[in-house]
Design brief:
By secondary structure, the protein is mainly alpha-helical. Helix content is about 50%, strand content about 10%. The protein has a domain at about 45-70.
Length: about 70
């Protein structure tokens, strides 16, 4: 879904003195941060890589614990 900003909202993108613009969903009072698609993709890749790393680490720990019970 793409939401097009109104002409009145566009100055918020130009004035980035206080960082990325934030928007509030008035139904839930949830805040969202507007970042460019390129920035989003870069952050998403970092988060996905961290999740993969943690998953591999957790599997390695489980395997190591399992081997501790084995008799040599």
């Amino acid at each position: 879904m793409t939401i097009e900003l109104t002409p009145q909202q566009l100055p918020a993108l130009d004035s980035r003195d206080s960082g990325a613009p934030r928007v509030i969903d008035p139904r839930s009072n949830t805040a969202y941060v507007l970042i460019s698609e390129a920035e989003y993709e870069a952050v998403r890749e970092i988060i996905e890589e961290e999740r993969r790393r943690r998953s591999i680490h957790a599997a390695a720990i489980r395997n190591a614990i399992g081997r501790m019970d084995e008799t040599p």
